[in-house]
Structure formats: C-alpha cells, structure tokens
Amino acid sequence: MPTAIVTGQQVPGSSLENDLRSLGFDVRLAADATEAQVLLSAVPAGDRVALVDGRFVGHPHALRLGLTDPRFPLAAVPGAVTAQPAARPALARAVACGTSTGGGTAVAVDSLADRVVAALVADGGDVHRPELGSLVAAVPADPQTRNEARQAVAAVDDEAVRLKSAVKSRDGFFTTFFISPYSRYLARWCARRGLTPNQVTTASLVTALIAAGCAATGTRGGFIAAGALLIASFVLDCTDGQLARYALKYSTLGAWLDATFDRAKEYAYYAGLALGAARGGDDVWALALGAMILQTCRHVVDFSFNEANTGDLAATASTSPTAALSDRLDTVGWTVWARRMIVLPIGERWAMIAVLTAVTTPRITFYALLVGCAFAAAYTTAGRVLRSVTRRTGRTDRAARALADLADSGPLAETVKGLVKRGLPGLAVPAVAFVGGAAVVVCSALTDFGGVLPVIATLGYVLTSALAVARPLTGALDWLVPPCFRAAEYGTVLALAANAGVNGALPAAFGLVAAVAYHHYDTVYRIRGNAGAPPAWLVRTIGGHEGRTVLVTVLAAVLTAPQFTVALTVLAVAVALLVLTESIRFWVAAHQGGAPAVHDEGEPA
Fold it and tell me: Where do the TM regions start and end (predicted)?
C-alpha cells in the first residue's frame, strides 16, 4: 500500500487525511521534517511514498493527479510530492537536503514538500507537474488565504472536471459528438464498480468478435446485428481509455492490449464480412485483404513519419512552412473537424462500416472502405511529404534507428547490404524502395500463376531493399521506406493468392498478412515504449520482409494452386505462433517487471 506522510501542523477541520485515504494511501503524521525523514526510511522500498503539507487545501482530484499517476516516477503539485519505488533514493536525498539548514530553494510558503521538489529539480530529477486547470492545490500562508482557497475549491465541481478530463482533448468528430458525451459516464460507472481498463478492453474485443460472427452468417438480420455490435464495441473501446484517464489506471500491458485489440477487432470483422458474403455466393476476400493492406499501410505511414520526427526534433518540427500552415488552419473551427474527418479515423471508419453493413452488402461496404481509406491515405501522405521536403532541419540518430527497425530487413537484405560500398543519395532511397516493391507486385499480378517472372522480380527486390537501407535513414523522405516495404510484401501475397484461383487461397493469404502485420504493429508499440525492436532472432527466423516475399513467390512458382494454398496456411500459422508467443512473453514480462506505465491514445490516423 502506498504511504502518505503528512507533515507539519494540521489544520482543524481539514479533510486532507480522508482525501488521502480515499486515494488508497496509508496516512502517517510527522510533526517536523526530521520525523518525516524517519518515517520515510521506514516505508518499504517497494512502495510508493508521498509527502504532503498538513496545510494543503485543494481538490481531491488535484491530489489524485499529483500523487497516483503510475506513468511518472516523480510527480508533484503545490504542497505535495510523490515518488515511485525507482525514484525513492532521489526523494530520500531531497528530503535530507530539505531538512538541513538552508537546504533547497526559496519558496513562497515554507513547505517541506515544496522544498523537497526544489531539491529534486536541483538534483536533476524529472518531476512531473500535472496540468490542473481550474482545480485548486495550494498551501495557504495564513487564515485569510486559506479561506480564499477553500472558496475557490467550493466554486469548482471536482467531479465534473474529472469527467471532462477523462475524454481525450483531440479526437474525431464522430467520437467527440456521438460517443464521448455518454461513454464518459460509462467509464465512471466501471470505475465505481472496480472494473479495470483491461477488462473493458477485453469486453470490447469479445463484442467485436461476436459482431464478426454475426456478419459471417450472411443474413440480413446478422448484418444488422453485426453493425450494432460493432458500434457497441467502439463505445467500449472509447470507454477503456476514458476509464484509464478517469481512474489513472495506466499500464504497459494495457497500452499494448488496447492497441493490438483494435487491429484484431477490425480485421476479424473484415474476415466476418467476407465469410458472410461467401455464404451469399459473393467472393469478396480480395477486397477484404485489400482493405486490410491499405489500412495497415496507412498506419505504417503514420508511424514512420511520427518516429522520424520525434526525439530531439520535436522542438523544431514546426520549421516546415507546411507545418506552419497546418497550425494556422487548426485555429479555424470548421477546418479542424473537416481535416479530422477527411483522414477517416477509427470512429468515422467504424461508423461507416457499421451502417453500410446493416443496410447494404459486404461488397459495397468494402468498396466504400477502400475508396475512403485511399483518399485519406493520399491526403495524409501528401501533406507529410510536403512537410518533409520543406523542413529546414535534419533527423536524429534515434529516428534513423527507429526507421531501420520499422523496415524489418531480414538476412537476405542485410547480407546484400554488407556488400554495398556506398548508400544511395537523397531522394533515391525512397524511389528505389518504391520501384523495387512496385515491380514485384506488378509482376505477381500480371503473370499467370506458376510463372517465374515474380521470382526474378523478387530477387531484384532484395537488391533494391538492401540499397534502400544501406545507409542510415536520415533523408527528408526516408520515412517512406517502411511503408513501401509493407505495400510490396502484402501486395505480392494478395496478387499471387488472387491468381491462384482456388478456394481458400485468399483466406490463407488474409491470415498470413494478418500475422505479419501483427509483427509490424508489435514493432511499432515496442519502439513507442522505448523498448527497441523485437529480438534479432525473431526477425531472422521469420525472414524479414524480403525473405518472406522471396519465399512466397518461390512457393507460387514450384507448387500447384491447391498446394500453394496449404503452404500459405502453414506459413501463416507458423508466423502467427512465433510472433504472438514472443510478443506476449515480452509484454507480460515488461508489465511484471515494472516497466513505466503508458497509455496509447489511439491510432494517429
């Protein structure tokens, strides 16, 4: 149990102790700084500890934000400071400094907690200070200011602020106006009944899988039920994040579940629609796979661009004139919502899919999805290309490492890369990656099944892939390299399976692309969590993007169509087992090992 040490003179009638206990703290009282230091040393090393001035006046939610957020080792609000176990030594040093004569930096009111914060900062500590907005957190110096602070507390509805802050400040139009107005109350209902965000995330997944099952029936009633359940799943998907923010229950495992389950839900629903259409005599597996490929490539564009512009470049990201124009457009109300809807984020996308499922056919649903996602991809990619070519700064080594990890190069590309003496200049890098990928996809699509031309094109693809990553990816448009690789690999699998012309080939290809896409998403989430890329043995074992592309084209050339279908199925199962086993092992170990808690704010699209 976390411990809160309340220091100094207690104020009669104060609710401070009750507020701290309601937040889960075991409250200890210290008459002075020396006693606080003794109590601090007695708290078990594995427990969170907080120092709170006995004169503190403020909202309970201000204390909650300052003292219970699991994402930050050190955090503080005026009159209170907390440290998680990893930061306990720094807190102990700061308390020792604060108890010494003249220790710390001058503060407005002589408060041990504030002196400790000043000492932590002077010692190089990264102390998180939450944005309180209208919430009050203060240590009044005299009765008059205390009364004024209490009046300010009474003037603001603590619970209303907490509910409002549970909703993301930036979200899509559909989510903002059609989901969040009531899902926040569902999040509070879940919090008051002890439900966790992970439980709600799981409920959202189960609901979406049931929706996919209803769509797979192929009946009008099943399609209507599927659309309704998909919206219900999205409501729960919004609720889990709002519950995490409302109750400050963030976790490494929760972020991973939230992100990966979103992909699993959407792609399982695509499969359900394809199965339902097949029951009605309409084969739309190629459309379903195309929609999954397009959506995944959209996300890879987002992830690659964002990773290329993080780290030391965050402060200079606005040096592009295009970025400056975008910032100006965000100051005009209607353009904000229009631009958010154009990119077809998850809320708008799922709403469109749900409505079209209920009132039209799977084929029409996929056509609309492909057109909408293609337009959104063109819009976002064009904007990011303009930002990149007009920016006036370079990219960091961290960004180059992240892009190299996202490239997912295997043994073949790495071997050829080692033979290359010099890398390509400037814009030739993404150009070569695009040309090599486009060549193998076009050859696979236009060659009759069993031809050798795709194999020859794939050997060229290995060379172009190696050339693209021969030097660090620090060029203006080098972030386009990973999306080109994804489109090449996935598109080749789609083209070969479609040309096979036998039942089961496209569903098997759908399974293979889903397994590989999971690996690529998992790579993104590891990079986001500062955990690095998946282990090298995994990338080598599953071949890298170029190795898998070579293998699939060779299988298509040497096997019959039915044998190729079996081979795709076996490959899909093998890749899925490997990547899922390693991914689950990693994220569970990270969660149990006390990795910093995070929460994914949803897809950037």
Answer: 364-386, 427-447, 459-481, 493-518, 550-580
Task: State pTM to two decimals.
Answer: 0.92
β-pair partners for 80: 52, 77
Does residue 501 fall inside a structural domain?
Answer: yes
In a domain, 292, yes or no: no
* 410 shares its domain with 449: yes
Write down the pLDDT at residue 596: 65
> Which of 385, 570, 567, 398 lies closest to 479, judged by CA?
385
> Percent helix, strand and coil across the chain, each rounded to 5?
70, 5, 25
Query: In terms of DSSP H, where are the helices of 280-330?
Result: 285-308, 321-329
**CATH number of the structural domain spanning residue 30:** 3.90.550
Residues 211 and 138 in one domain: no
Q: How confident is the model at residue 565, as a pLDDT?
A: 98
Is residue 50 located within the same domain as residue 116? yes
Exposed e or buried b per residue across 23-47, where buried means at least 16 C-beta atoms within 10 angstroms of its C-beta: bebebbebeebeebbebbeebeeee
Residue partners of 445: CB distance under 8 A and separation at least 6 = 491, 495, 498, 499
Which of 134, 156, 178 is at the close of a domain? Answer: 156
Count of CB atoms within 10 A of residue 448's CB? 8
Q: Is residue 238 part of a domain?
A: yes
pLDDT in tens, 166-198: 998 888 899 999 999 999 999 999 999 999 999
- Backbone phi and psi for residue 80, each to the nearest 5 degrees, phi listed first: -155, 145
Contact 494, 513 (CB under 8 A): yes
Number of domains the chain contains: 3
Residue 98 vs residues 3, 379, 382: alpha-carbon distances, Å: 19, 55, 55
Write down the pLDDT at residue 309.
84
Residue range(s) defining the domain that contains residue 148: 3-156
Q: What is the DSSP string of 450-496?
A: T-SHHHHHHHHHHHHHHHHTSS-S-STTGGGHHHHHHHHHHHHHHHH
As a whole number of angstroms, the distance between CA 382 and CA 373 comes to 14
Q: What is the predicted pLDDT for the residue at 332?
A: 62
pLDDT tens readout for residues 105-135: 444 567 899 999 999 999 999 999 999 999 9
* 76 and 66 Cβ atoms separated by less than 8 Å: yes
CB count within 10 Å of CB 142 equals: 9
Task: List 51's β-bridge partners, or say none.
Answer: 5, 81
Those residues of the chain that have pLDDT short of 70 are 98-109, 311-334, 392-394, 595-596, 598-605
302: in domain? no
- How many Cα atoms occupy the beta-carbon half-sphere of 273 within 13 Å? 34
